[in-house]
Amino acid sequence: MKKTKKIIIPAVMAVAVMMSGAITCYAANWGDLATVTINSSDSWKNQFDGPYDYKETESEKFRVYATAKTMTSSPSVRLINSGGEIRSSSVSVPNTYYTYTGDDNTGSSGYNYWTQTKPAWNQVGSDTMKFQIKADE
Asked: Could you give the CA distance from residue 135 to residue 137 in angstroms, rounded to a whole number?
């Protein structure tokens, strides 16, 4: 029995180390998580203090991944450049822990991109959303 424990414990530790490396590698491809405030009275709001990401390819897709939101509605997110110019279509974010893919990303590779957010028509008051983006696919 002792011999089995000696083999199993290092094996479990090795698997854990490999899994954490894979998760870290996946997360490194995304921009940092950031929390933004979205008010029901807002129109499109630039979020330069929110999440951003460096675009590495000429992909016309982008992705949004929310880990928390206080609203039950579905706010919209789209990409902008450093001048606040729109660089993609918008994507609705109804749920957390799900990746939403947007289209029409006209941003050039080699630059950082930020987001604009807009509340859903049925949002009431002020809410927050914690999310990250990937400026290309």
From this structure: 7
Residues 30 and 96: beta-carbon distance below 8 Å: no
Q: What is the mean pLDDT of residues 8-13?
A: 58
The first and second tokens of residue 105, run together, are 């990303």
Find the range with the poorest average confidence among 5-19, 89-103, 118-132: 5-19
As given in the structure block, the two tokens for residue 49 are 């203090």
Q: Would you state the torsion angle of the CA atoms of residues 74, 71, 130, 112, taken in this order, to the nearest 10 degrees?
A: 40
Structure tokens at 123: 């949002």
Split at pLDDT 50, 70, 90, the class of 27 is very low
62 in helix, strand or coil? strand
State the burial class of residue 50 (Cβ atoms within 10 Å of its Cβ: 0-12, 13-18, 19+).
buried
Among 55, 54, 47, CA closest to 129: 47
**Whole-model pTM?**
0.77
